[in-house]
Write the structure tokens for this entry.
Amino acid sequence: MSLRRQCDLLEVCRGSYYYEACPETEENLGLMRRLDELHLEHPVYGSRKLTVLLRREGLGINRKRVVRLLRVMGIEAIYAKPKLSQAGFGHQIYPYLLRDLEVTGPDQVWCSDITYVPMASGFMYLVAVMDWWSRYVLAWRLSNTLEAAFCVDAWEAALRAGRQTPLISNTDQGSQFSAPMFVDAVESAGTQVSMDGRKRWIDNRFIERLWRSVKYEDIYLQDYGDGLSAGRGLGRWFDGYNQERPHASLDYATPAEVYHAADAYGAKPPTWEAMRTGSKS
């Protein structure tokens, strides 16, 4: 059977069949690394101000190029603006459940988010699932694409690692977290879905702070060459973060101490509306 006939049967354009994806140039990878650093330093700066900063550093770049690279990286300024986090077409958006909610113990709320990971050659994406109260990172995964599957994998790993199923899972409204496969994974565990409100970057602030720590303390320093070395290095960093790194907001206890010995750190049952919890079998 000819390739033309095969493409007709599969409803695939022949141009798409022969097309080979072009990786980003070394110059663009360097610009993306610098944009990621500038975003952490100035998270409210949009493409206009980032372009100005790059030009002050002697880089000949226009705003259109900055916008494209930021889109590839999945980075957006965190000031209030329309369409802050785009859901996939036809995906359901859920309300934000944490407003005026007092989280008083572990496994009441877990939060998830994705960040861009620059490497010496190329880049990847990192997702993590964190317990809101203790800041304990239950699971994380690396991926070279922004598909929902690696978020589902991280969620299922978090369920296996956690003490019990959480009452609420909070994310942004991005297409990975509003995808039916991720929502189904959360709801099938007996957990309620919560999503940050529009123009409300601060709703998921704890995991945003985690990204700053992991990048300045590990990713930027190590400058990983490939996904394998990045996975090994990040595994060591997250283990140290959970088990050894004192956390100022936890009175310098470690997240693991607070998560696994919650009663010793003042954990209380939730005072808000009772929800069904699922214990680990």
